[in-house]
Specification:
39% of the residues lie in helices and 10% in strands. The strands form two sheets. It has a three-stranded mixed β-sheet with strand order 1-2-3. It has a two-stranded antiparallel sheet with strand order 4-5. Helix 4 packs parallel to helix 5. InterPro entries: Aminotrans_3, PyrdxlP-dep_Trfase, PyrdxlP-dep_Trfase_major, PyrdxlP-dep_Trfase_small.
């Protein structure tokens, strides 16, 4: 069976490893990545293929049929390479893991017993499932519902983690006070 994880939002380190699927111990045939690849500086997307898929393609036509308007854009590729180099050279994944744990701990400390906050879930600095705010409990139709998205930069430090939690707390408390 061919596994193709969609790591457009969580790939390239957001969860504390280059790919979230690595943490589950699964081997993907193809991986779709995008946002983290350009780090917000340059739009880019990519599909990574395993050696087995590569060998299969080579044994067949030898051609990976795909394409979009801006395929192989030199500036986008240069930006992606620079982002990848910075992640490695600055050991940003270690910071993502450490600050992600701190952020979750501080969120649980601040909101763990909050009557209007449900489950606080995270992995690294990925808080997509994040704060489930009652009574809606999430987004049912993709547009309506109460939810929050926290996605701080990989270079965040503890003072900014505290600032995020303080400002989020003030915003939630202020909105509930009416």
């Amino acid at each position: 069976m061919l596994l193709i994880p969609d790591e457009v939002m969580c790939g390239m380190g957001r969860t504390g490893s280059l790919f979230a699927c690595e943490q589950e111990g699964v081997s993907a045939g193809l991986i779709c990545i995008a946002r983290g690849l350009g780090a917000g500086y340059q739009p880019i997307g990519a599909v990574m293929v395993s050696q087995a898929i590569r060998d299969t393609l080579r044994a067949g036509t030898g051609f990976f049929q795909h394409g979009h308007t801006c395929i192989g854009h030199a500036t986008a590729c240069a930006a992606a390479l620079a982002v990848r180099q910075q992640i490695e050279q600055r050991d940003l994944l270690a910071n993502v893991r450490a600050m992600g744990k701190l952020l979750k701990d501080r969120l649980v400390q601040r909101f763990g017993d909050h009557p209007h906050i449900g489950d606080i879930r995270s992995r690294g600095l990925s808080m997509q499932a994040g704060l489930m705010c009652y009574p809606m409990g999430g987004t049912i139709d993709g547009q309506h519902g109460d939810h929050g998205l926290l996605a701080p930069p990989y270079i965040i430090d503890s003072s900014h983690v505290d600032e995020i939690v303080d400002k989020l707390g003030s915003a939630i408390d202020g909105s509930l006070a009416g």
